[in-house]
Amino acid sequence: MTQPARTPIDQLILNAVERAAASDLLRGGVRLERLLVYAVGAGVAPARVYTEYSSSRLEAKWVRAPGGVDLAVIGRGFRVTPRALCEMKIDKLDESLWDAIKLATLRELEPDGPPAYLIYAAGKRKFEDATGSNCSALFQHTDDPVTWETTHLIERWSKAWAGLLKGSSKDPNNRNHPRLSPARICTHMISDPPFAVAGAADQEIRVLKVWAEGTDEIRFGPNGWPEGVVPVISSGGKARSAVPNSDGQFPKPMRQSWLDRNVPTLADADYRALIAELKRRGWRDYELAARVTPHRI
Fold it and tell me: Does 1 fall in a domain?
């Protein structure tokens, strides 16, 4: 699917972001996301806006409806149908993975619905991180829209996805995540050049347009990972594969805290591998029944 390079709604959003970047609200390096949302919302005047706009349609695709979209531009008069949907963050580029899937799913559910945008503020160095470990690759300038395989995005930034799942709930059995999402997501950075934030050295705002490509979908397992993707466990700010390490070993020694934290979200194949490894280490059936299998009931 090819998107126009610039539409009237694109221009409305870009004008609002430009005003926000130049406003006093963001001077002095203030990092409050609600101020960014407020500044962009003020910039679309006289159009009306809603914050934390919720769409019940997402309940059909997620375990439960995720939090509302940060900003919905409604327009004038009494219409409540959004003209644009915007998710915004400051510094947290890794959260763009979650936001992109969320917005692309909304666009898939409503192909003729409002366009969707990621409006992210961060330091220039963070946006241009050569490693791309923080999802910064999404925010690079390209002449044409870029199509991403959703599964590949999550595999590429598996540490970010693991952290996002953990952030949805401290209880691993109660985490929110997609059940179905578009198989392909298109993005196009329409803010070229990015907007420099007044009074905040090296800080800039980039605007990424997001939509779903086609109608194919991928399915997520109960652990929040796309089917066929090896899950990664996030703990203490670090992430690691939940399957055996490259040398074929699970953690040694095997501590109960690791089992309590990881067994509930292991894929079935990984769980079977864990049981086989523990038996190889001499664990008896009664030990497995007391320490491991209750997490799978």
Answer: no
CA 100, CA 181: separation in Å to the nearest integer? 11
**272 falls within a domain:** yes
Predicted confidence (pLDDT) per residue in 117-156, tens digit: 999 999 999 998 867 778 999 999 888 899 999 999 998 8
Structure tokens at 2: 């090819």
Output the pLDDT for position 190: 95
115-132 burial code (b ≥16 CB/10 A, e <16): bbbbbbbbbeebbebeee
Count: domains in the chain: 2
Domain range for 199 is 8-219
Same domain, 176 and 276: no
Is the per-residue pLDDT at 249 higher than 80? no
Same domain, 114 and 259: no
Q: Which two tokens stand for residue 107?
A: 């666009």
CA 219 from chain center: how many Å? 16
Residue 1: pLDDT band with limits 50, 70, 90: very low
The pLDDT of 90-116, averaged and rounded, is: 93
- Look at residues 153, 185, 219 and tell me which one is the last residue of a structural domain: 219
Tokens standing for residue 51: 């914050």
- Exposed e or buried b per residue across 152-164, where buried means at least 16 C-beta atoms within 10 angstroms of its C-beta: ebbbbbbbbbbbb
C-alpha angle 88/5/143, rounded to 5°? 90
Classified as helix, coil or strand, 283 is coil
Give 66-88 pLDDT, tens digit per residue.
888 999 998 766 566 788 999 99
Is 158 in the same domain as 267? Answer: no
Q: Compute the distance between CA of residue 105 and CA of residue 78 in angstroms, rounded to an integer.
A: 26
In the listed set 204, 219, 234, which residue is the last one of a domain according to the structure?
219
Give pLDDT, residue 33: 82
